[in-house]
Amino acid sequence: MIITHLGLESFKVQFGDITLAFNPISKDSKLKSTRYSADVALSTLNHLDMNGVENMAYSDREPFVVKGPGEYEVKDVFIKGFGGKTTYGSKEMVNTIYYVRLEGMNILFLGAQGDKDLPHDAKEAIEEVDILFVPVGGDGVLDPDEAAKLATNLEPKIIIPMHYDLPGAKTALSTFLKEYGEEKVSPVEKLTLKKKDLEGKDGEVIVLKADI
Q1: CATH number listed for the domain at residues 2-205
Q2: pTM score above 0.90
């Protein structure tokens, strides 16, 4: 599995011949968007910063689009979506949390999570978390302190912070790392991971540079 950060909450996850796009940025957003071919495009929130699934149709390939709660199975990728609330953009909206299983690994992608706790149905269904994507920027999503507490409670093997590169969230990442006791973490270009690499890991924080 290769994970690349493309800004804010936009991540490209590749494994074998399959590519997943999490929260791609729309071409109509004020943020910079990226276009590439994906097999599955997941959007947690109907906002221009996170709903650019149209950018994932490329070279005559149309992605399978996931935009809300439910259960999905696409090309050996198993997805469960759970609806929650956020006030991103100063408006209360539904944010979908995605629990994704692929290559024997479990990804929990919180998107624009604003509540300090997960929805009840998510807590009931989510078991082991190998890789946690958690927003840390505040202003409608979890702030650094809330993100650190939720990450601790979820006990993931790896934590990838996101949503810290907006003008009003410049100190969010450093604050999160301090709260989590990982101040010396250095950003990396991408994360390459196999199931065996998770052995012995317990809440390791990995910061990915935005490849844009």
Answers
A1: 3.60.15.10
A2: yes
